[in-house]
Task: structure prediction
Amino acid sequence: MRCEVEFLAVGDGSRPGDAIIVRYGDPAAYQLMVVDGGTANCGGTLVAHLKKHFGALVSLEHVVLTHSDADHASGLREVLREIPVAHVWLHIPWLLSEHAMHLFKHKGWTKDTLAAAIKKEYDIVAEIVDLAIAQGCQLRYPFQGQQIGPFAVPPPGAARKGGGQGPELGAGILDR
Result:
């Protein structure tokens, strides 16, 4: 299996962002993954790049949001508006509010009020989730042990292939 990784320079000097395109599989039957989408201004650039290099009818097997910072998440909204996506991998923190209630000093939260407050704080992620649902994407959590295409989500501190201890990897993706 071949794997090509393209790191896109999205954004400008004062507002940089991150977007990565991964092409994997056989040359005649490859799949595409986008990891992060850059800033809001970069979403259109990412879509144009995908259509230019992979055709007007490009589709993505996987979209992965590593974390909810605007310079990683915002551009994915345009990707989900313009390109068919099968699977969207991201953390949806308000769905886990019931399990986090004990962590808050204020004990007056209910599951629903805490979920609403968290969702309001993660408005970009909420919009990405809404767009993915409207498109019929399968929403997935990138938790340890999950397979994202041919890649595995490792546990924090997992040894890298070829030896050596890596940094805390969290939701990072490593080739198996």
